Amino acid sequence: MAVLLSPAHIALVDSGVSTIVASRDAQLRPSVMRAMASRISPDGHTVTVFLRPSQSQQLLADIAAGGPIAVVFSDPPSNRTLQLKATSAHIRPACPSDQAVLRRYLVAMQHCISQVGYGPDYVAAMLSAPPQDVVAVEFTPDEAFDQTPGPRAGMPLRPSSAP
Question: Residue 111 and residue 118: Cα distance in Å, rounded?
Fold first, then answer.
């Protein structure tokens, strides 16, 4: 079985770094929104991003219509950045157990953003969402790219064989 993401990449995604989600419609017009949180399975096979439908109508419509998904995970203090892409994604309602993911992500982002000079209230305002205004978007990455500024920016990650 090919493994797309290394343990270091999985750890980056799981650490609660800045998460931006994008798609496009049939006419190739882009849609983009900041995620409220993200989660990755320990094996890197399933990624879940959380969006506010009230702020992400076009993005969710594009994904629901079968548009591809691209998600960028970036650590502001280091600029270490990873982009994951998939040809499709599944949208589901957020469930009560997802609230723990949202809280953990908020705390992680508050710590992350504090390292570049922004206080916890800024992040709390940016990521505030009533539970009824959150959906989960799940996908399995087909492609991954190093997007960290520097000589490897844009380079695809090569899948490796699992032991």
Answer: 9
The model's pTM is 0.92
**What does the pLDDT read at residue 161?**
45
Contacts for 134 with CB less than 8 Å, ≥ 6 apart: 36, 50, 51, 52, 53, 94, 98, 102
Q: Does domain 2-145 have CATH number 3.20.20.150?
A: no
The domain limits of the chain are: 2-145
Q: Residues near 5 by Cβ (< 8 Å), separated by ≥ 6? A: 13, 44, 141, 144, 157
CB-CB contact of 105 with 149 (8 Å) = no
Q: pLDDT tens digit string along 116-162?
A: 888 888 888 888 888 899 999 999 999 999 999 898 899 998 776 44
